[in-house]
Amino acid sequence: TLKEFPEDFLWGASTSAYQAEGAWNEDGKGLSVIDVGNHPEDVSDFKVASDHYHNYKEDVALMAEMGLKTYRFSIAWTRIIPDGDGEVNQKGIEFYDNLIDELLKYDIEPLVTMYHFDLPLALQKKGGWSNRETVEAFVNYAEILFDNYGDRVKYWLTINEQNVMIMHGDALGLLEDESDNIKAELYQQNHHMLLAQAKTFNLCHQKLPEAKIGPAPSIAAVYPASSKPEDVLAADNYSAIRNWLYLDAAVFGRYNEIAWTYMEKNNCTPEIEEGDMQILKDGNPDFIAFNYYNTLAVEADFAKEDKESNFSGDQKTVDNQPGFYRRHENEFLEQTEFGWEIDPVGFRTTMRRIYSRYQLPLIVTENGLGAYDELEADDTINDDYRIDFLRKHIKQAQLAISDGVELFGYCPWSAIDLVSTHQGINKRYGFIYVNRDEFDLKDLRRIKKKSFNWYKNLIKTNGKE
Ligand code: BGP
């Protein structure tokens, strides 16, 4: 039988600091790797973004009107500590103080990501996550957040999509220029992030016994391209490398054995110091947050076992790891305008797999449809395609709950339009339209899309519509 969404279900929406805030160099903010990153020439950079920094009151008022129970946003590390480690910037503290108070004024639960791709540049210059000192820098930063906001923030997320950062490290500016073994560098970074995360889980529990904290990777069910046993094995491989490596470390405090074999074969196992595994074991999350956009199908590629794998972080090479798996287009799924496969049923499968493996409460911190929206002459945006996408995913979330999955919240990407990681502002995800173009800022006015009213009603009826 179909179960209802729990009464206190956290219907929400998400953003990240660098994609929404703008004000990239205001009020003492330091530079992040994003501010100096290589950016495609045909799309906007992040300097103004949606100008959420200056419009947060209006944006929060709109979120309240929509009825959001939670708002998942990230704090820009460089606003709080411009150099990543060291001096605290009071203006940065104040901005999030104000934002949090504004949310609480409307009974919107703040759900805070500590780090969403925007590593302080000053740390990157010292080696970034390749440098073990970044672990302590992160934990210090986390402590400052707990000290300043722990009285009001109950839900914390450590690192957004650590797995995507490791798989696409070069795209996100996390690599040193002249790295000769990129893969080894990335998996070393991964180890350091895992340590930082585990220590932060621990610190949170010590300092804020009432608070809850979790990781926020991107998780996707991996399908075998066929029922050929080798394809099934390939799907297991990819799932281990893409999903379980990160969550097994976060939850069980151990390295997934299939992922470890993969690292051994590729000469990229991290250096693990004495005591590290104990640190991983001692830090435990209270829940698992995850982002879901699509599933992935793979086939076996064992014939190419001997060919050298050419990892560079770029999608094509991540998708093909000779000897382990090769990506396969799923002929059963439709794709978005941006070529992302759409798979609501896979959403249910993904939740079931995470829950049965870890038995921890789940919250979805991203899910959504990137599309070109059209602003009509009468100031409306008829994004029926987005409503259709979200409706189908929410239906599957309800089915997952009915299967027994403990799901306590759902935060679509994104609350307001913002600048995509690499495809500009016109790849829109929001319930709230932001009136600007890639290179023409226009008036940055906020306009409610059709999906705004739809989601408002959905929240009011707790998922019934
Ligand atoms: C996730 C990121 C977000 C985000 C979203 C959509 O990977 O956590 O920051 O933007 O994907 O991706 P994109 O912006 O590339 O369309």
From TrEMBL:
Keyword Metal-binding (UniProt): no
Coiled coil: none
PROSITE patterns: GLYCOSYL_HYDROL_F1_1 (PS00572), GLYCOSYL_HYDROL_F1_2 (PS00653)
Catalytic residues in the record: 366 (nucleophile)
Keyword Signal: no
GO biological process: carbohydrate catabolic process
An annotated Gene Ontology molecular function: beta-glucosidase activity
GO cellular component: cytosol
UniProt keyword terms in alphabetical order: Glycosidase, Hydrolase
Family named by the database record: Belongs to the glycosyl hydrolase 1 family.
Name this polypeptide is given: Glycoside hydrolase family 1
